[in-house]
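Writing this down once: the sequence line spells out the residues, with the fold written below as integer tokens. I am pasting one below:
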Amino acid sequence: MFYQPKDGHGLPHNPFNAIVTPRPIGWISSRDSAGNDNLAPYSFFNAVAYEPPQVMFASTSAKADQDGTKDSVANIRETGVFCVNIVEYAMRDAMNASSGMYDKGEDEFALAGLEKVACEIITCARVAGAPAALECKLTQIVKLPGQSNYTVFGEVKGVHMRDDCLKDGAFDVLAFNPLARMGYKDYTVVREAFSLERPD
């Protein structure tokens, strides 16, 4: 099968999300200028540079109570900071609960039954007990083609790692089993790893 997205795919569900998988999930916490905390998962997320360390996430829809975007992007525009919380398999239900289109100012930490703790160097909350959290300062927001499509880039200014995830001096993802997004309503979990040596 071949299709051009502009012409449609003719399938019951869009296959694009299922083709680009698995995708890590950035559980983005942010705070608006009035002090309201927000927490939302984004599967268009990744690390993009080592020095200095940088990450990105993309928001691709809008809410009626925000100006053409969602709470996370609106909050980060206001404050210039955000935190990326890493999602472990054990937190899958809380992550899913935080994904709803809730009213502006609604606290997803409370809705998902999550404890929050303050970040160290930015004015933002983070998920208590997350395997890792990246405190970020906004570098740029890029408007992408299409309605309400924005990519947010941030420089990682602080890194939290849960002590039990450090094994022999390395951050061990098998200690907590990262959750990843697949297509449609599907997710997967990392339960095994293997190593390859590069030719160089």
In short: Residues 24-189 form a domain with the Pnp Oxidase; Chain A fold (CATH 2.30.110.10). The chain has a mean pLDDT of 96. Helices lie at 16-19, 71-79, 92-97, 108-111. The radius of gyration is 17 Å.
